[in-house]
Amino acid sequence: MIKGGKIFIDTSYLTLTDFYSGTTKIPPGNYIVLSVRDEGDGMDEELIKNIFDPFFTTKKNNKSTGLGLSTVLNTTKNLDSYIVVNSKPDAGSTFKLFFPSIERGLVTSSNSYNYSDIVNGDETILIIEDEDGVRGLIREVLDMKGYKTLVAHHGTVAKKICEKYTGKIDMIIADVILPQINGIDVVESIMDRQPNTKILYISGYLDDPRVQEEVINAGLFFLPKPFSNYELVKKVREILDIK
User: Fold this and answer.
1) Cα 21 to the chain's mean position, in Å?
2) What is the DSSP letter of 193?
3) Mean pLDDT value of segment 183-193
């Protein structure tokens, strides 16, 4: 919000006895609703139609990849959940996420997992991820496990790193959907310099043809977003230990 204002975040428990009417059809049931409301400029109907499209952005000078809301939508779908947007020009925007309520007891600590249980490593890992928050989290988690990390926010930077780096890169963690060159093409372009490097692809776009056909159906190592710290370090260690 360039002009300032407030952001309101709240949660509620909602029982729908009939289909939710509006732009998003939500079946009857019990839901946990996460609501995020701002006092920003708001959006008209035409803009709302495009906000979830990959790489669509209203920001100029490459200040945004346009993948933020697209990632939110795909993550929500992967959780069998729904997202509803209400906004008008000069009236702010409200995003409501409907998560199906699971009527069961809490998971006890004996069934939980901790990424500290996974063996540490000292290998070098190149992370290619355009979302700052995701890239930073992956790097932080791997750094804490002893790995040496190199980071790139898109394919061009990743290729330059590989051209200048004289050591061995043991693994590349690459997002499949990137704004300039997709992760698959980036990896293929740098494998000549690092032929024995292990590859782990990540993505929240499970319905994308490239993810389905070129990664999942091809049997390549893949980790769907969102993933936990434990899932990340466990997968990394498993792949690196393959002889």
Assistant:
1) 29
2) T
3) 90
Residues 99-117: tens digit of each pLDDT: 998 766 555 444 456 666 7
Closest CA to 52 of 40, 43, 62: 43
The model's pLDDT over 16-59, given as tens digits with 9 standing for 90+, comes to 877 775 567 888 888 999 999 999 888 988 888 888 887 787 77
Compute how many other C-beta atoms are within 10 angstroms of the C-beta atom of residue 231: 14
Nearest to 150 by CA among 170, 121, 176: 170
Q: In the β-sheet with 7-16, what is the strand arrangement from edge to edge?
A: 7-16, 29-38, 93-100, 82-87
Going along the chain from its start, the domains and CATH numbers come out as 7-100 (3.30.565.10), 115-240 (3.40.50.2300)
Distance, in Å, from the CA atom of 87 to the CA atom of 69, rounded to the nearest integer, reads 15
d(CA 217, CA 109) in angstroms, rounded, equals 35
DSSP letter at 213 equals I
